[in-house]
Amino acid sequence: MGKVILTGDRPTGKLHLGHYIGSLRRRVLLQNEGNYDRMFVFMADVQALTDNAENPEKIRRNIIEVALDYLAAGLDPEKCTLFIQSQIPELAELTTYLMNLITVSRVQRNPTVKTEIKMRNFEANIPLGFFCYPVSQAADITLFKATTVPAGEDQEPMLEVTRELVRRFNQTYAEVLVEPEIMLPENATARRLPGTDGKEKMSKSLGNCIYLSDPADVVWQKVRSMYTDPDHLRVEDPGKVEGNAVFTYLDAFSTDDDFAQYWPEYKNLDELRDHYRRGGLGDMKCKKFLNTIINNMLEPMRQRRHEYEKDIPEIYNILRRGTEKARETAAQTMSEVRHAMRIDYFDDAELIRRQAEYFAGGK
Ligand code: TRP
């Protein structure tokens, strides 16, 4: 059986450097390596609506933002099927059947759901749709028979639920669904990029993001005011690189080539770190270097985005075609699911013949 990659994002905001380093960059590599038979990337608008029910306009607006971010980052609709979750009705259908194979208490134990309930102050009043989203996510993954799901650590509990559901389904009905594996980000910085304020995580609600679509001057404003070492007051002072966002970003984004090209006084990041620790190296110099690196990385994305923005109706066409393609796979799996569950009444000539015989024979 083929290897299938599937992953998605909730379209609740524009994508930022944290998304890029945590997953988007990897997806583009996976797409271009071509070691997988199929690759699906989708916008999880149904899931986004589970905690944004009153604000559909926000989701609607961000579909196009995320689509532009995907395309700008280098996802290629010829190699990777891009689609919108809500436009695949088979997902809702599979979710309904999977819900019979899991208990409320099993979902309650999901640590990611627990954290999200707290964060959203849902404790007293959890929307049922929100509560069920892990099952809906299991449907996202299994409907396409995904083998590999590139995602962050926080998604591991969803994958566990998915594997349990696959085993339950296959034991109860027939061997139709496929157990997926998570593909975690390659290293610690990729797992969690801090915000420009040095806080643990880059996130829209904290207002500490550099967006993939930020113009160069905005990136510079943000980099210039980045959190460093609060005790590094004068250039001569020794500085700390741990917890210093500028150095965390350099760790994530700089290469030895960047040093050779833009800062040949240092061979690599280790040498730069040593100098910073000893003292005598100012924050501003480091920030300028970081700014160059980030802008070099974002510039090709800006240019591609700019091209794509000229023809927005074509973006919707790309998503429509991707969705149609995804639906072919969805329909195929659902017909196997219905057959396995013995709810394929109209396609089962044998069933109809036998029932006719039974009733004709006076039972
Ligand atoms: N839960 C994921 C997130 O919050 C989005 C998502 C929905 C997803 N369905 C998925 C990710 C299936 C991977 C596979 O980002």
Structure summary:
The chain is mostly helical and 363 residues long.
Descriptive notes:
This is Tryptophan--tRNA ligase. The protein has 363 residues and is mainly alpha-helical. Helices cover 56% and strands 6% of the residues. The chain has 17 helices and five strands. The strands form two sheets. The protein has a three-stranded parallel β-sheet with strand order 1-2-3. α4 (89-99) runs parallel beside α16 and α12 packs across α15 (283-309). The longest helix has 29 residues, at 312-340. The chain is elongated and about 100 Å long. The chain binds tryptophan (TRP). Tryptophan (TRP) binds at residues 6-10, 44, 47, 137, 140-141, 149, 151, 155.
- How far is the first residue's CA from the last residue's CA? 44 Å
> Largest sheet at a glance?
3 strands, parallel
Count of alpha/pi helices: 17
Total number of strands: 5
How large is the radius of gyration?
24 Å
Main structural class: mainly alpha
Strand content: 5-15%
Give the SSE string: EHEHHEHHHHHEHEHHHHHHHH
- The residue-averaged pLDDT reads 95
How does the overall form come out from the CA principal axes? elongated
Q: Widest sheet: strand order? A: 1-2-3
Helix content: 55-70%
Could you list the spans in which at least 5 consecutive residues all have pLDDT below 50?
none
